Amino acid sequence: MATHFIDIISPHYQDLIERCERRKISVNLDIQNLTVPICDDDHVRLERFLSAEIKRALKNCKAGDKITISESDDDNYIRISIKNSGAETLTTTEKEKLIAAGYEVRARFGYDTIITLKLEK
Q: CA-to-CA distance for 121 and 113, rounded, in angstroms?
């Protein structure tokens, strides 16, 4: 049985809001479909992704920065991204590890860092 995206992201989002409020970091949610189903096999993978990448975003951000959680889906894939505007960027080793783990990574010094998990429907 599949779980809806909203059921997985809600606790992560609530925790993120509280943590960012104290640190004066903006939080954006850019969700196309909160009710998109996540199959049981991907549920754990998504939980791990959200925990790790929200933690990374918080570590990289300071007051005035922004963290965005986004979701988009089409006929074949669900894409969940964590974007942060922190000044720190990923090291080459970090980027390589994330890419080897199957994530899409966009990170350049002076630009936002975006890490995306792509799930098949």
A: 25
Distance spanning both ends of the chain, measured CA to CA: 13
Q: What is the pTM of this model?
A: 0.92
Helices 40-60 + 5-23 axis angle, to 10:
10
Which residues, 6 or more positions from 21, have their beta carbon under 8 angstroms from its beta carbon? none
pLDDT, tens digit, 9 for 90 and up, residues 42-57: 999 999 999 999 999 9
Coil, strand or helix at 24: coil
Q: Which of 21, 24, 37, 105 is nearest to 71 (CA)?
A: 37
CB atoms within 10 A of CB 98: 19
Q: 71-93 pLDDT, tens per residue?
A: 999 989 999 999 999 988 899 99
